[in-house]
Amino acid sequence: MLQEFKDFIAKGNVMDMAVGIIIGAAFTAIVTSLVGDLINPIIGLFTGGIDFTNNYAVLAGDVAEGASLEAARETGASVFAYGAFIMAIINFLIIAFVVFMLVKWVNRIKDAAEEAEEPAPEAPAGPSELDILMEIRDSLAK
């Protein structure tokens, strides 16, 4: 059983998947930082720093007026946090666009590298000597 497990782990697909998951986690941290630390502040400049995170509706419980979402949750009140959901959607769209642009850039570089590696197509060769001789033979036979 131990040997079967070793054989399973040694297969290329399992190792490829593990590497992909690790790289994906690292890539997620990079994209999240890019969006949170670089893109969102720039968007905040143009939108006047609009942040929907603290927009909520109290469904049950007592919450001080103007309290943040975190403060409202700490009081134990039941809140409908629609602002946090809106911000999650906005962040998703930004992250999806950034990933799209990165993939597009990587594919463009990959295509350029493949084009550089491909040899130029050879010029079409004319008929061979054998083809000409066969054609002469056929025309003499007529």
What does this structure look like?
The protein has 142 residues and is mostly helical. It has five helices and two strands. The chain has helices spanning 2-10, 12-47, 69-74, 82-117, 129-141, and strands at 57-60, 78-80. The relative contact order is 0.07.
Strand content: under 5%
Largest sheet, described in full?
Answer: 2 strands, antiparallel
Poorly predicted tracts of residues: none
**How many domains comprise the coordinates?**
2
Task: Give the N-to-C terminal Cα separation.
Answer: 78 Å
Overall residue-averaged pLDDT value: 81
What is the SS-derived class? mainly alpha
Radius of gyration, CA atoms, in whole angstroms: 32 Å
Show the helix and strand layout.
Blueprint: H1 2-10, H2 12-47, E1 57-60, H3 69-74, E2 78-80, H4 82-117, H5 129-141
Antiparallel strand pairs: 1-2
What is the compact description of this entry?
The protein has 142 residues and is mainly α. It is built from 5 helices and 2 strands; from the N terminus they run H-H-E-H-E-H-H.
